[in-house]
C-alpha cells in the first residue's frame, strides 16, 4: 500500500474540480459481476471517483453506490476519509435505475421490511405425503420404473390385445393406458395373458419398448441411473416379476412406505424425502401423468426389490429394524460403492436405506444398482449420511466390527448373510477399517466397555462374559444390553 | 450534506449441519477433529441469506430446516440499505452465485457468506469456517470421498430463492 502522507491536502470536500494532484493509487472496484482497477488520485473526492467509475463501467453517476468497509461513500466525502488506499477493494453496486436514489443510504423505506414475505415456506407442502413418496419413493432406482413399466406395458398390452402394432400405435397405446388406469381388473387380466407374459419375460424387448417412449428418454437424460437400470437385465426381470403380481406389488408398496416413514423419523431424513420427491418424483409424476391421465398406478412400477421376498406371498419377515444390522453395511456400501463382487440378484430397496432386509444385504450389497442409487441419494444429501451415522450404536458398532472380524460374525448386529460368506465379511470388515481411517481405537471391547461392564455388574448381572457379549452387540448401550441379557431381544 | 447514516447490524449465523456428528465421528473417520460441518448464513435487515444448491436464498432468521444456529457471530454494522443490498444480491445471483455453480468444497455457502460479509462490513468470516474444506481434503478419507462429495449440493429448505429479479421475494 503506497502511503504517501505528504500529499497536499487539496480537494478535500465539496471540490469537484479534477486536479490530479497527489499520488495516484490503484483501487479495485468490484461489482457483483466483475471488477476493474481504477487509478485515482489519493486525495480525490468520492465524486471524482464516481466520475471515473461511471466512465469505466458505463453507468450514470447517479446509479453508483460505493461501499467500503461497510460504509456507503457519499459524494461529499474523500477517499482519504474512508481510508481507501492503494490496492484496496471498494464494492460497487449499480442501481438499476428504479429510483433515482442518491448514491447512498437515505432511502428510509428500508427498515421494517422485516419478516416480510419470503415464504420460509414451511416446507412440508411439497413433500406430498410420505405414502405417495413411499410408493414411488426410492431415489432413481424405483421411480423410473413408474412410467416405465406401465408405458412399455401399455404398449405391450395394446399390442397383444389389438393383435398387432398398428400404424397408430401411439394412439392405441394411449387409449390402452387410459383404460388400464381406470380399470385395475383389466390389468390383472392382461397380465394373465400368456402372450403378455412371454413378452414380459423378455427383458430386451421390454427395455426397447420402454426406451422408445419419448418421455422416458427425457427422464433418462436427466437421470442417467435410469438407463443403467434399464440396462441391467436382472433388474428388469425382477421388475417384471413384480409387475406380474399385484399382491406382491402391494407388499412392495407397503415396504416402501414403511421404509420411507422410517426414513422420515431420522432428523434430516424428512428433507431427504422431500428432496427425493421434488428432484425425482415430480418429473416422474408429470411425465407419467401425461401418459396416464391420472396416475393411480404410479406405485406399481415401484420397485426393484422383487427378489427380496419370496414371490407371490405376503411378507412374513419381521419389520426391519431401522437402526439395526443394516447400518454398517449400508454405510460401508456407500463408501465401497464401486461395486465389487457380490451378485446383484437381491437388491436392497433403495428407498429403504435403513430398513433394508438383511437377507439382501450380503448378496446385493455392492454391485446392486440399488446400492448405487443409495450412494447417489446420499451424495445428494450429505446430511442424510450424517444422520444415518447418527443412529445410536453406529459408531460403536463400526468400531467393534472393524477391530474384530470374529465379532462381526458372531455379532447379530451384522448381517447374517455377511456372516455366512467369508469373502463378504472380509470385504465389509475392510470397508469398516477404511472407514475407521487412521484412527481406529485399539482398545479391546472389554476395556472400552469397562464402565458399562461395571454398571451391569452393579445391577446384578454377574456373568461378565455374557455382559461383554451383550455390550458388544449393542455397541455399549447398557439398557439394550440389559434387554439382551434378559432374553428379550429387540426385533 | 449528511443524511442519516443508519447502520444495520450484520450477523453470521453458523449451523452445524452434521448436528454434532462431525464432532464425534471426525476423529474416527477422518483422523482429525472437526467440531462441525459448518453452514453459514448472513443475517441483516432482519432476514437470513445464504447460498446453496438452489442459488441465493433468503428466509427469516433461523427459519431453515436447520433450525437455530449453533452460534451467531457479530460481523459489525453496515450502512448498506436493504434496497441496495437486494440489488447486490440479485446481481450476484445472476452472475457468480447461481445455483448450478454450487460446489461443496469450492463455491459454497461459506464462500458466499464471506463475500457478502466483506461487502457489507469489510471484514471476513472466521477462518475456521472457510478452511474447513481444505482440512477435510487433507485427510485420506476426504480424498477418497471426494468424487462423492463433489456432487453434493447443500440447500437447506425453508427459503425463497432469488431469481435475479429485484424485489421478487
UniProtKB/TrEMBL annotation, chain A:
Residue span(s) of domain UBA: 448-488
Main location: nucleus
Annotated CDD domains: UBA_PLICs (cd14399), Ubl_PLICs (cd01808)
Residues covered by the Ubiquitin-like domain: 25-95
Keyword list, A-Z: Chromosome, DNA damage, DNA repair, Endoplasmic reticulum, Isopeptide bond, Phosphoprotein, Ubl conjugation
Region of interest (Disordered), ranges: 101-154, 289-368
SMART domains: STI1 (SM00727), UBA (SM00165), UBQ (SM00213)
GO MF annotations, alphabetized: polyubiquitin modification-dependent protein binding
Location relative to the cell: Chromosome; Cytoplasm, Perinuclear region; Endoplasmic reticulum
Biased composition (Low complexity): 102-131, 337-347
GO cellular component: chromosome; cytosol; endoplasmic reticulum; perinuclear region of cytoplasm
A single GO BP: ubiquitin-dependent protein catabolic process
Polar residues compositional bias, start-end: 348-368
InterPro entries: STI1_HS-bd, UBA, UBA-like_sf, Ubiquilin, Ubiquitin-like_dom, Ubiquitin-like_domsf
Subunit structure: Homooligomer. Binds signal sequences of proteins that are targeted to the endoplasmic reticulum. Interacts (via UBA domain) with GJA1 (not ubiquitinated) and with ubiquitin; both compete for the same binding site. Interacts (via UBA domain) with ubiquitin and with polyubiquitin chains. Interacts (via ubiquitin-like domain) with PSMD2 and PSMD4, regulatory subunits of the 26S proteasome. Interacts with ATXN1/SCA1; interaction with ATXN1 inhibits polyubiquitination of UBQLN4 and interferes with PSMD4 binding. Interacts with HERPUD1.
Name by which UniProt lists this protein: Ubiquilin-4
Taxonomic path: Eukaryota, Metazoa, Chordata, Craniata, Vertebrata
Encoding gene (name): LOC109907238
TrEMBL record, chain B:
Keywords for the protein's UniProt record, in alphabetical order: Hydrolase, Protease
Residue ranges annotated for the PPPDE domain, each copy included: 8-150
A biological-process GO annotation: proteolysis
Enzymatic class: hydrolase
GO molecular function, one term: palmitoyl-(protein) hydrolase activity
Classification via InterPro entries: PPPDE_dom, PPPDE_sf
Domain of life: Eukaryota
Reactions accelerated catalytically: S-hexadecanoyl-L-cysteinyl-[protein] + H2O = L-cysteinyl-[protein] + hexadecanoate + H(+)
This protein's record includes keyword Aminoacyl-tRNA synthetase: no
EC nos: 3.1.2.22
Similarity remark: Belongs to the DeSI family.
PANTHER family to which the protein is assigned, alphabetical: DESUMOYLATING ISOPEPTIDASE, DESUMOYLATING ISOPEPTIDASE 1
Name of the protein in its database record: palmitoyl-protein hydrolase
